[in-house]
Design a protein that fits this description.
Largest sheet of chain B: 7 strands, mixed
Radius of gyration of chain B: 20 Å
CATH architecture of chain B: 4-Layer Sandwich
Order of helices and strands of chain A: EEEEHEHHEHEEEEEHEEHHH
CATH topology of one domain in chain A: Metallo-beta-lactamase, Chain A
CATH class of chain B: Alpha Beta
Structural class of chain A: alpha/beta
Number of helices of chain B: 8
Radius of gyration of chain A: 19 Å
Shape of chain B: globular
CATH topology of chain B: Metallo-beta-lactamase, Chain A
Number of helices of chain A: 8
Helix content of chain B: 25-40%
Helix content of chain A: 25-40%
Strand order of the largest sheet of chain B: 1-2-3-4-5-6-7
Shape of chain A: globular
Oligomer: heterodimer
Structural class of chain B: alpha/beta
Strand order of the largest sheet of chain A: 1-2-3-4-5-6-7
CATH superfamily of one domain in chain A: Ribonuclease Z/Hydroxyacylglutathione hydrolase-like
């Protein structure tokens, strides 16, 4: 009997979901002793070999890519760590390693369970602040984006992996599911860790200096968007907001790839934070999800 | 600068953290107002809209508008219409500052009613100018008779913000709900929308007996306009998935806007502000499918059973 097609949240007819099964060649790069990063050209994850078995972070973005990731690891995956709840990050453990232990922050685990998406298996072990997993330390730095989004520190290799945080470019789009009030202090807290290499969840591997400059860029957009709204730039007029932030930010940040297409909608999103007051208790000083 | 460092200025600051004056908080807003049905009035500064109701001795007002000056203008508009009747009650529809952020300027001594989900955010936020509720309600419905004003509050499930609730006036066949249905494509990138439960949740409101709908922005509509707006959401949900399936650069607003114009323009291009916001609406829906919904609110299963109707007796 043919298995039913995995579809996450998609409601398109099965014949339109072929893209979920595409399985591109993955690029695998060694970052340090027993630590590797894997990428399909856009999304990126990491895995380690630990006591002859593998620990894999996240699942890549589709069932097909999860299977390619499994093949790239090439050995038994004993543990899968969910960096956050988003399906394109951790939605396909059923294809990557269905029998593995699954580790997640407790808030992430709660959303995964509530969602019940077909390929996203529930967590089997949760934590709240930090947790040692093999040679790595999982750290919840406070809210940045998504729910229960954690960073992973590999102290021996001097590597930090933290998806849905800083990118090597300006392709942040509408800062989807970001928590505007709290992201900056949460990100800056990670600078207390000892690392030289930063692995983002998308695009290329970065240096520590690039990570820090990425936070500076996000802060600059945040500050400029707030000032735009305070100065009565119409919060509903995209062209006005786009022009304002480009006038103020292009000189310093215009060289970032994707700046022209993305900075306007980033600022538009942030201005709406000040218009609405933030979204739920996540965007309040409490910094926690509704009901947590 | 942290919020604690921000200097006190002559107006309430919401959650702004920058120092000095906030010109947008001090910008005057002209209000227009008109009677609707019975003793219900609607008021708008051209973008936001609310209602207030004349009671026997005072006024039951919904929301506060979105800045200290707008709240003051709202108060003055009510005084102009009902000069001898103070606002003794404010009902918060939901937690966002652009609708309920400035009771301190609007009616600082009023009784304030809010759903418990709304008040939880208001309390956690601690915004300058947004007062906590003096009483909360919970669950899906609550019936109120205040100073001769009769209405049922309805929390149909997650739609937008926290605790976003409708006010139903069964005697007048009038339904008021903010930040859900509006005429056209007016809601930018659908900020703080909970898309997975959204459509079935707002559809439940069609089970109530009403023929006049007052939205939180722009102009009034009816059951046909309400249903038309739901069809827009259904179309965007479908086309967002197709954009992903076809390999559109779905992070890029310009690319997504081009796709929205191409796929939705023929049927929906006549809608109010389609050219401005169709791409943003689509961008938000793209992330819904890529991510699987945001947070607990965006992953709560919608309810489908009929809303309990209070007979008012």
């Amino acid at each position: 009997m043919a298995a039913e097609r995995l579809r996450g949240r998609y409601t398109l007819p099965a014949e339109r979901l072929g893209f979920l099964d595409e399985s591109p060649a993955l690029e695998v790069e060694e970052l340090g002793e027993s630590l590797w990063t894997v990428s399909d050209g856009r999304d990126r994850a990491v895995f380690v070999v630990w006591e002859d078995r593998a620990i894999a972070w996240d699942t890549l973005s589709t069932p097909g890519r999860a299977r390619a990731y499994r093949d790239a690891v090439g050995r038994e995956i004993a543990t899968v760590v969910y960096s956050n709840d988003h399906l394109e990050r951790s939605g396909w453990a059923s294809e990557l390693a269905p029998d593995a232990e699954r580790v997640a922050h407790e808030w992430c685990a709660r959303v995964v369970e509530l969602r019940g998406a077909d390929g996203q298996l529930p967590a089997t072990r949760t934590f709240s602040d930090t947790l040692e997993v093999g040679p790595a330390r999982l750290i919840f730095p406070g809210l940045v984006s998504a729910t229960g989004n954690v960073a992973t520190h590999f102290p021996s290799q001097g590597v930090l992996y933290a998806p849905e945080t800083v990118l090597p470019n300006a392709r942040y789009s509408m800062l989807p599911d970001w928590h505007i009030r709290n992201f900056s202090p949460s990100l800056r807290s990670l600078l207390a860790l000892d690392f030289d290499v930063f692995v983002p969840g998308r695009y290329g591997v970065m240096s520590r200096a690039e990570f820090e400059r990425g936070i500076d860029f996000l802060d600059a957009v945040h500050d400029t968007a707030q000032r735009a709204f305070a100065e009565s730039v119409a919060v509903w007029l995209f062209d006005a907001m786009d022009a304002y932030v480009k006038e103020h930010l292009t000189a310093e940040w215009g060289g970032l790839e994707g700046f022209d297409d993305h900075v306007g909608i980033m600022a538009f999103r942030i201005a709406h934070h000040y218009l609405t007051g933030g979204w739920s208790t996540e965007d309040s000083p409490a910094g926690r999800p509704q009901g947590a | 600068m942290s919020p604690d460092d921000a200097p006190v200025s002559e107006c309430h600051r919401g959650i702004f953290t920058i120092a000095g004056q906030i010109p947008s908080q001090l910008q005057w807003r002209d209000m227009t107002y008109e009677p609707l049905r019975g003793k219900v009035w609607t008021v708008s500064e051209g973008i936001n809209r609310s209602i207030f109701v004349e009671g026997d001795t005072g006024v039951v007002a919904f929301d506060t508008f979105g800045s200290p000056m707008a709240a003051t203008a709202y108060q003055l508009a009510i005084q102009r219409v009902l000069p001898d009747k103070p606002v003794h009650t404010v009902v918060y529809t939901h937690d966002h500052l652009d609708h309920t952020g400035y009771a301190a300027d609007f009616a600082p001594n009023a009784r304030i009613i809010a759903h418990e989900l709304t008040d939880a955010v208001v309390g956690a936020r601690g915004a300058d100018g947004q007062l906590a509720a003096t009483e909360t309600w919970s669950g899906e419905t609550a019936w109120y008779e205040i100073d001769g004003v009769r209405f049922q509050l309805v929390y149909p499930g997650p739609t937008h913000g926290d605790g976003n609730s409708a006010a139903w006036f069964p005697d007048l066949k009038l339904l008021f709900m903010v930040d859900s249905i509006i005429p056209g494509v007016g809601y930018t990138f659908l900020p703080d929308w909970h898309l997975a439960p959204y459509i079935p949740t707002v559809q439940r409101l069609l089970e109530l007996d009403w023929d006049l709908f007052v939205p939180g922005h722009f102009w009034l509509t009816d059951r046909g306009g309400f249903a038309e707006n739901i069809r827009w959401y259904e179309a965007v949900a479908q086309i967002a998935q197709e954009a992903i399936a076809e390999g559109v650069d779905v992070e890029s607003l310009p690319e997504v806007t081009r796709y929205a114009q191409e796929r939705l323009g023929a049927e929906y291009g006549h809608l109010f502000r389609f050219n401005e916001y169709a791409g943003m609406n689509l961008l938000r829906y793209v992330f819904e499918y890529l991510h699987g919904g945001w947070g607990l609110e965006g992953n709560t299963a919608p309810r489908h059973e009929p809303i309990a109707v209070h007979d008012g007796s």
